[in-house]
Amino acid sequence: MKIDLETIKKLREISSASVSDCKKALEEAKGDMKEAVVLLRKRGLEIAAAKQNRQASEGRVESYVHLGNKIGVLLEVDCETDFVARNEDFCRFTKDVAMQITASSPTYIRKEDVPKDSLKEYKDHEDFYKQHCLLEQPFIKDPNITIKDYLASLIAKIGENIVIRRFTRYKVGE
Question: Which of 57, 65, 110, 122 could form a disulfide with 72 if both were Cys (CB 3.0 to 4.6 A apart)?
Answer without folding.
Answer: 65
